[in-house]
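User: Show me a protein chain along with its predicted structure.
Assistant: Here is one chain, sequence first, then structure tokens.
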Amino acid sequence: MADEFKKMLDDKEKVQLMIAAVVMLGGLVVLLKSVATGQAMGQRWLESKGNVDTDLYVETVKSYIHLYQIVGGVMFGGGLLTLLRAKIKK
């Protein structure tokens, strides 16, 4: 019974580590694509608003880029910290 419980915990840890790795890699992708995605979102915003001031458009694009950088950074950092914590624990 104890061996089954230990195996179940090992499997659970492996799944958690895989999820952490996927989240970390996803965060890295979001970080690397933040400029292109932010510009695309800014373009969609401009199309929905029609004629707007150039400064407002530039600020909106910057805001979208920063949004994706923050989300990607949080995902990458969370995944990395989870993997490092698991490495230190062993």
